[in-house]
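Board notes (copied after class):
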Amino acid sequence: MTDQSPTRTAEAAPIRLEVEADGVAVLTLTRSAQRNALSLGMMTAIEAALEQIAADAAARVVVLRAEGPAFCAGHDLKEMRASPDRASYEALFAQCSRMMTRIVRLPKPVIAEVSGIATAAGCQLVASCDLAVAATTARFATPGVNLGLFCSTPMVALSRAVGRKHAMEMLLLGQMADAETAYRFGLVNRVVAPEELSDTVMGMARIIASKSPLTLKIGKEAFYAQVEMPLDDAYAYASRVMTENMMARDAEEGIDAFINKRQPVWQGC
């Protein structure tokens, strides 16, 4: 991207991507009439947007939000039933898993801004993000069990975001959880009034965007790598990461700036 205007916008239905001048990339789901259900087209568009964000040095943090009363109602069930064969289902769930993994492996933090319902794969989408902020009006569920279809792929992200007992409660009961319950379970970081949601999320995003992009990349990658390791292996790995990080120019700049009581100037290297 070379456009230097304050805000650069690239539209590709069913999403909208805007990269703000302060380094915040806002990715908006725009299938509000379909409750932002994850159609094949939407998942393809999200993947493409994430690739674009990954390659854009100006984008340092991502805010994922949605238009309409629903954040994301999960998979598009009508689309799924239109091709009721094994190959279609395998391709669909493989694409969804690839998209969710892309969020985790994106070298930039992703914040979910949740103002409505997030159910099934929509709840999975929230759980896959690095941070999540919910309005008091938000609701969360993995209701597949009610339809005879256990939320097995949402379970992967959910069980890594919340405790096992809480994850199983959501998966087995299939009931809606309010925002305060989601906060208590650890699915979201904060719960705020609807009118405060956007400002809260953008405030967090701008704080993150002010950090060294190299440090953010190193930190996010290291977090997800070490959390799956045994304790001794995790410390050995993290020690190697810290050593490499200390050799970076941004680490030298940050420490020197702290010692000399000035603002650091990040170079991303």
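Comment from the instructor: Confidence is low (pLDDT under 50) at residues 1-12. The first strand starts at residue 8 and ends at 12.
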